[in-house]
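As the next step, I selected for study one protein, both as residues and as discrete backbone shape codes, as given directly below:
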Amino acid sequence: MATKVTRISAKDDGPKTRKDDAEEKVTRKVSVKAKNSESKKAVADKKAKAKSIKKAEKEAAKKEKKVGYFRGAIQELRQVRWPNRKETWKMTLSVIVYVVILAAAIMLLDALLQLIFSNILGGK
């Protein structure tokens, strides 16, 4: 049992004149141009608003950043555990001792290398 399907297409049987076609084309063009110009204006307005908002946010962030930097620095300084006099002298002396030991090691290495190279090159 096969059923036959017929397709019906809608046709405009009324007579068309050239004047009707021309008016229809003009109204289409005008409506398309109007839609495009409205959408362009809307897009331009949105972009302008977005730019002004971003600019205001940047300026606010700059002001906050400047103030925030100093507030942050003060907050960090409050968290620092400052050494007392005894600890300060202890650390200072340890630095001095370390520098003296390192300087002595470098001088010994320099003297050793100078001796070796003078022997190799036929020292005077």
